[in-house]
Write a structure and sequence with these properties.
By secondary structure, the protein is an all-alpha fold. It has one domain (4-138). The chain is built from 2 helices and no strands. The protein has helices at 4-36, 47-138. The relative contact order is 0.07.
Length: 143
Amino acid sequence: MTSPQEQFAEAARQGQEAVAQAIRTWSESVQRLTRAMPSGGEQAPSLADVVDNAYAFAEQLLATQREFTHSLLQAVTPGLASVTEGAKAGARATEETSARTRSATEAAAGAAGETAQATRRTTRATSTAAKRSARKTTGGSEA
């Protein structure tokens, strides 16, 4: 696969070739027209001949432009496909990261809740043990 710079350079080269071909075609048409023009006593070309020559030139110019446009599309299409695939891959990675973050957040919240419950149980047990110990030390007179 060629690099984007090489593809662009090739498209530019083909564009230059298309322009050169259009100029050659125009030059040939002008030469035919001037040859057809009267010199001295000759008759000017008919309007139908002028119209036919103009349309023949336009057809050649359009064909050259069509070829140039197709060559540009061929050069650009792989790059667009890469950009599209890259964007899709980025979106998938973002979705996966979001899912993992959600999962980790839920797990952390669950662990925090379990830790809080364990802390409350430990605090109650410690408080109960402290009260029992205080009763034993004072002889049970304090409640």
